[in-house]
Write a structure and sequence with these properties.
98 residues, 5-stranded mixed β-sheet, 5 strands, 36% helix
């Protein structure tokens, strides 16, 4: 199985979204995190299932929420770069590996 490595700023992004969703409706933030976790588990089991969107960066799509999990595969590791709202400017994605 591939080792999943999540950058600290990615964890912070997810935490901020959790808070935002919880402020909208109690429990919605938990639903968001469960959706992200399920997608990460799928990525770890099948890292090549999602298409490449920019160079070698792939985007996993969690259920029910308009977010993408941006990652790349490096040998036996999956590096999770970001969890982005998909309505953002796509040019932001080009800077993910920096």
């Amino acid at each position: 199985m591939y080792q999943l490595i999540i950058r600290p700023r990615t964890v912070e992004q997810a935490r901020k979204q959790f808070v935002w969703y919880e402020e909208k409706r109690i429990g919605l933030g938990e639903d968001f995190l469960l959706s992200i976790e399920a997608c990460l588990n799928y990525i770890q089991r099948s890292p090549f299932a999602f298409q490449k969107k920019h160079k070698d960066i792939r985007v996993g799509l969690p259920d029910k929420f308009p977010f993408g999990i941006f990652y790349f595969v490096d040998n036996d590791k999956i590096i999770v770069l970001a969890i982005f709202y998909l309505g953002q400017n796509p040019k932001l994605f080009e800077k993910l590996k920096t």
